[in-house]
Amino acid sequence: MVVLSIIVPLPVIPAMVQAFGGEQGAAFGVSLAVTLPTLAIALAGMLLGMVGDRIDRRTLLVAGIAVFALAAPLPLWIDSLWLLIGSRFILGLALGAMTVAAVGLVGDYFTGARRAFWLSAQGSFPAAATIVGALLSGALGQYGWRTPFLLLLVGIPLLCAVLILRGPAMTPEVHGETPATDAGKTAFEWRPLLSIFVLTIVASFMIFAPAYEFGYVVLEQQVTSTVLPGVMTAVLGAGAVMGALAPTALRKTPPERQLALYFMVCAAGQLTVALSVTSVGWVAGAAIIGLAQGAIVPVLSMWLLDRVDEAGRGRAVSVFQTVLYVSQFSTPHLARMVALVADSAAIGMLAYAIVLGLLALALGLAVRRRARPA
User: In sequence order, what are the residues at sequence separation of 6 or more whose Cβ sits closer than 8 angstroms to the Cβ of residue 131?
Assistant: First the structure.
């Protein structure tokens, strides 16, 4: 839902600016309306996490979906830019409740292989939504700036489904597996999670940021069509769908070692994009980057849930979501800054690849050193 909510207005931004052209600061206001849900998720994350720890997380999920179902389609009828901005902020609060509750419930309901599977599924769905949402919103946008928001009416059947369907019982033995509390977990503490939060920031900046420069990379090779960057983005999303399955297949591999692998894969993709001068190379590089992008969030989520008990799960997930969304909100600006400093988007992409490769090597060496017997 987060990805779909952000993707829907993108093709009609110029039309929205034109529609609200009579209001002061229309261009800024429309841009704010598009990105505000992400900021709302980040800003409300901590509070929502504490709420999720104090009440049943399913209740938080239902409340979030209910608010989403009401707020998401409001642009179909709103005629004021600032009311539009307000509705998008409320939408962001609903999305924050949904994401915190969804990840927390996976930790509540499942352990082991089943937890890995559902977290991977949560990673693949946004990537698939990127492809489908971009195609449908672009097609609907031909009939006016409001029509793409019809896609957000999906909240209504989603609310009906969550009210009718019940999740599995939260028992000490989930599907016959050993409960997480018996696996050596300690009481909730922040310190063991700091490394996960730091790596989340690093992954966001190093893996997600360069993809925003696809258009500039091909433009430097005198390719002025917007079709190729669009194809690269679609292929990136398809790669992410496949990459999200990797943490499940590699669930017995330590998360630090998995991260080192995904960092190296992404570095290879960035290197391919940076050094290519043909569409085949650019598209192939985008697909490789997508594989890494799809795997990163699921493996970080698994690592996080394995380190906290049920009592602190909501707070831990909320901080993780806040760090993730604040970082991802900043990534396009960071990518553009790197390209401007390097005086070339391709050189900036090459710099990302080199740094990410070194980080992968350092992380791999750290894991090996820690595993070495004293």
Answer: 234, 237, 238, 241
